[in-house]
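Hi there,

I know you've been waiting on this one. I reran it after we fixed the sequence typo, so this is the corrected version. Both the input and the resulting structure follow.
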Amino acid sequence: MIGSIAPKKIDPSSSCASTGVTPAASSTSASAWNQGGTYEERNASSWAREYIENALLKSKCRGPGDGTSCSFTNVTKIEGDASLILRKQEKRYVFDWELEVEFEVSSSDGDVQCSGVFSCADFDSEAQGECEVVVKLKSGATNSVRHWAKNGDALTGVVNSIWNAFSKEYRNRY
């Protein structure tokens, strides 16, 4: 054989200078092997799952009555994926999650007044921070609690706030 055909390690810092790759290709964070700007996908699902779950469990919102608050106690379902797609020197941050979260509404002295679960099937990159939340009550269903759950603004506001924070962090991280 002529020459060595063994694989050689690519050094990204020297390969750009020696091959004349434009700065646009390196600014997309493409792999060293992807200097032509072809399709490339990176999985960010495990980071995204952990981020969303932690954000939900740390969040609170106002409850149905004066002096009440709602806290999220358990993420019972978090299914989906997140990927960074590089194509033609353009990044696309794609994610699609389905969430189901248990919550409790407590009075100012800590007594649990009601509990329930909410679901969100459109926590995705196309939602633009306008996720739809569906609330189901388990216990403590007074008229004010039913109205609060039916309206859903407090829970929806928290989910949309998490969507915006997640989307921003996702873009900064990747």
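Quick highlight: The first strand starts at residue 40 and ends at 43.

Best,
R. S.
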